[in-house]
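Dear colleague,

Thank you for sharing your sequence with our group. We've completed the structure prediction you requested, and as agreed, I am returning the results in plain text so they can be pasted directly into your records. Please verify that the sequence below matches your submission; if there's any discrepancy, let me know and we will rerun it promptly.
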Amino acid sequence: MLHSRRPMTHESRKSSGSYYTPDATAASLVSWAVRTDADRMLDPSCGDGRFLSGHRNSTGVEQNAQAVKGAMERAPWATIHESDFFTWAGQTAERFEAAAGNPPFIRYQRFTGQVRAKALSLCASLGAHFSSLTSSWAPFLVATAALLRPGGRIAFVVPAEIGHAPYAVPLLQYLAAHFEHVQIIAVREKIFAELSEDCWLLYAEGFGGSTNRFRFTPLSTFERMDAPPASGMDVPLDEWKAWNYRLRPFLMSKASRDLYRANCEAPTTRRLGQIARVGIGYVTGANEFFHLSPSMASKLGIPDHVLHPSVRNGRALNGESVSMTTVRKWLLDDEPVLLLRLKKGQKLPASVERYLSTDRAAEAREAYKCRMREPWYVVPDVTIPDAFLSYMSGDGVSLVANRATCVGTNSVHVIHLTGGMSLGMVQQCWKDPIAQLSCELEGHPLGGGMLKVEPREAGRLILADRPPSPVDDKLILAGISEMQKWRHYA
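Please find the predicted structure tokens below.
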């Protein structure tokens, strides 16, 4: 990771993917990767040199000049290249018996430009094809592995996203195709106490070989150890694929997994995507401008026929439905829930034209989404769904009927039924705890105890029509509890 000798703020660390690895973790990973004093070890993003300091035959790569100075002081025997890693990796003839470290975790929104292009091109030439939504650490590991000698080993800190993120799939496929043994160690207690995100550990050995399974080892806590843990379970690649290329389901018991899989395959079970279209709500580009409170609408003289009540966030999704009673309470509380809903070619009321000429409108018009559409004041993709789905939650995901014919922002998911099940049937199935277990398994942890369900994940949620069973319910609830523990929801 990138490190400066000067203290870094949380924001600068987040921007560069820079967080110091605890000494016990760094020492353990070096011990896992290095077998003899003669082994050459590579750290592709050596930061302050704490991995290099654990082995005297080490080489590091680091693009931050200040960090290079710190690494040289910490590990004066090491060879350190001040360079962008992907540039260096694409040109070097050096090869290594081992590699260890903590690659920079820079999300795809910031992993851009020539660096990303170079990284993805290099990985593609090695047979690993990443999408543009890839975070930086995954290409780092592919490019690092390619610099090993036959039989080589890697040991790295990785984000827990390796257990569920689609962009991690090409990495895991590459590792299985190029190593004899691949082990992922899931650690529930945070390795980095200051981060909301979880980190796991990755170990692979026998470069040049291949495997048809992963070793998956969940640990409650991580302490210094000289060798990778022997405990865990073997996950065949076919089974990993059957779980939508996710390792997270293997955090819960086999009995809970088997029961969930049996319900997925039952003839009466439907995926939400089979009976509905699930998508995000509309995007205004300037929410404060386009959403008015009743008092503001009255002050501006905006007529009712261009205003529409909106569900603005998941907090509004309480109970089984958004009803007219719900909307009346919002209006009585003077909440800004009235969307200015205008259409192309529509003759605008004079009061609306005046509002569109205000300084507030001029500011809104400069927002990116507003600049990109014509006319700027017509919000696209405004629909009246059959129901809403919360996409970030703590306790559980809410599926709420839209009895009041509201519209919804992109802070909630909108559900349009396409046939096969009535809304009443959908909501009845939603009361079954297996629907909440489905949210835990098909969604993913966001950090801070939150569960997030993207539209593509929501489409995989199961609606099971099954007879009551206290024995099965106990296994389902145990699965929910275990998954919530792993995302730190108390």
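Summary note from our side: Residues 101 and 156 are 5 Å apart (CA to CA).

Kind regards,
the structure core
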